[in-house]
Amino acid sequence: MSRLSIGIAGAGIGGLAVAAALARAGHEVVVYDQFDSPRPVGSGLVIQPVGQAVLARIGALERADGLGQRVTHMLGHAQGIRLPILDVKYGPGPGRHGLALHRAALFYAVHEAARQAGAEVVPAHEVTGVSAAPQRRLLFADGRESPRFDLVIDASGAGSALSPLKPRALRFGAIWGVVDWPEAGPLPDHQLSQRYEAARRMVGVLPIGCLPGGGARKAAVFWSLTPEELTDWRTAPIEAWREAATRLWPEAAPYIEGVRAHSEMTPAFYSHGSLRDPVQRGLVHIGDAAHRASPQLGQGANMALLDGWALAEALRNEADLAAALSRYHRSRKRHLWAYQLMSAVFTPLYQSESRVLPALRDRLLAPLSRIPPAPALLSRLVCGDLLAPLRAGLDAP
């Protein structure tokens, strides 16, 4: 496709990744963000192999890999159950690992990729609306308007002012904190480790490498709770939480002890839903602005990266904008639908107030998951390629 002028709402992971891909393809790209200086929000996350493939293609993987921590195993135990109830190995082969990092490290990698590709990032512009087609303008909170664009991409996340998505709120969320990785700690540094009390409580530790600029290796510590429990958690002494978390998982004490104050933990609550059609004339929604799910399968950032790459590929392969947007939607529809469905099915097994579902998980599903071909299927599910992530496929780096 000939050179387009493209405006992107949101300088998050998805917005910067698609900006890098499109600028590298020769389009004129401007990214608007509400913050005075664009910055990441959140704690740790895992980029799966299909997401790493996108990072490689936009020139961000080397930086991300240098800061992050490769993980090859996801292991979870339930209180009182000897054998693991979550045991996923990524499997042999090049690129078959997760890349765990702090959001700041991933943001740095994709921001640099977008900047070097020639995308312009404009801070202090809170997007509140978009004008009608054919050529669209972004509208800002202070009354200003952007220039006209051939295409507007809504990558402004769960708080999007442009997306009509009305998701269903999920009952459980989590608090996340970042601590120094204790070098003498008992947990492997290539593993996401979790401990459950039925499905109502979960504590986890994720090695996430280093922050941009170097320094000590870090771990993300997370604890599941409801919004009501968050209020109680904030009013109780932090020592009370550390004691409760350590009782549930004594091995995690060296990591939990790194949290010294409530302010060092960030709450995150989730929702579930997808737009039936994320494409309008001259406007497309990607990432959390188009589809949201629990992070239980570790696919949130992956999906945003895949959306961005699929959109860039559709624009590269079609001469007409409307045809390209239609191609984009078709290329992602099946993969998104499948992972949204699996997220909806798996989440209550690990985060819910049910007493029946965790018993079913521990006594039936966990033993079945150890019988071939289940381990290989679970590995591909986590890697993000149980189904082809794009209609034409996307090879791992």
UniProtKB/TrEMBL annotation:
Domain FAD-binding: start-end pairs: 5-338
InterPro entries for this protein: FAD-bd (IPR002938), FAD-dep_Monooxygenase_BioMet (IPR050493), FAD/NAD-bd_sf (IPR036188)
Protein name stated in the entry: FAD-dependent monooxygenase
Pfam family, one: FAD_binding_3
Keywords per UniProt: Monooxygenase, Oxidoreductase
PANTHER family reported in the protein's UniProt record: MONOOXYGENASE (PTHR13789), PUTATIVE (AFU_ORTHOLOGUE AFUA_6G14510)-RELATED (PTHR13789:SF309)
Keyword Lyase: no
GO molecular function: FAD binding; monooxygenase activity
